[in-house]
Amino acid sequence: MLALAGCTQALAGGLRPLEDAEMSNVTGGDGISFAAHIVLNDPSLVGAVADSRLSLGFNGDGQNRYLVIKNLRGSIDMWAVSLGVQQRSDGGGDTITIGLPGYVRYSNFGFESLSVQTDPLAPVTGNLGSLNINGNVSLQGQVRLWSH
């Protein structure tokens, strides 16, 4: 195994500094790709919270109101989200490129209730609905960001 590693290093050559002219001819891949497994408020875990809330506050007409999402939970699996840099096709610089995930799976992802309240800690009395998603999504494409 060591002999094989030595052969590949000899074929590839050692590290050496490159002049600017040589560097402009170098091509290669860059960027990162990652996968994620996200679990929120899994009720099967020891010590799981039975009444969790996510509150978003707003002030309108001099009164504070809160959008309260009760028991946000579920899991999301994402494969192959990428982040990289590409040269713009018009030659005007580089873009940051975010590659959309090729596959996303939702398992019991959602919330128990959604309400608008004046006190985010008060018991949830209203219910504007609930959400539960189970399914798969396949995406393709990129989001490109640049500045002027």
Explain what the structure shows.
The chain has 148 residues and is mainly beta. The protein has two helices and nine strands, in the order ααβββββββββ. β2 and β3 (63-70) form a beta hairpin.
TL;DR?
By secondary structure, this protein is mainly β. The protein has helices at residues 2-12, 20-23, and strands spanning 32-40, 53-60, 63-70, 73-87, 94-99, 103-111, 113-117, 131-137, 142-145.
Write the layout of secondary structure elements.
Layout: H1 2-12, H2 20-23, E1 32-40, E2 53-60, E3 63-70, E4 73-87, E5 94-99, E6 103-111, E7 113-117, E8 131-137, E9 142-145
Antiparallel strand pairs: 1-4, 2-3, 3-7, 4-5, 4-6, 5-9, 6-8
Notable features of this structure?
6-stranded antiparallel sheet, disordered N terminus, 3-stranded antiparallel sheet, 148 residues, 48% strand, 2 helices, mainly beta
Total number of beta strands: 9
Computed Rg = 25 Å
Structural class: mainly beta
State the distance separating the first and last CA atoms. Answer: 51 Å
Number of domains: 1
The average pLDDT value, as a whole number, equals 84
Number of helices: 2
Strand content: over 45%
Report the uncertain regions: 1-8
Please outline the major beta sheet.
Answer: 6 strands, antiparallel
Helix-residue proportion: 10-25%
What is the ordering of alpha helices and beta strands?
HHEEEEEEEEE
Q: Using the alpha-carbon principal axes, give the shape.
A: elongated
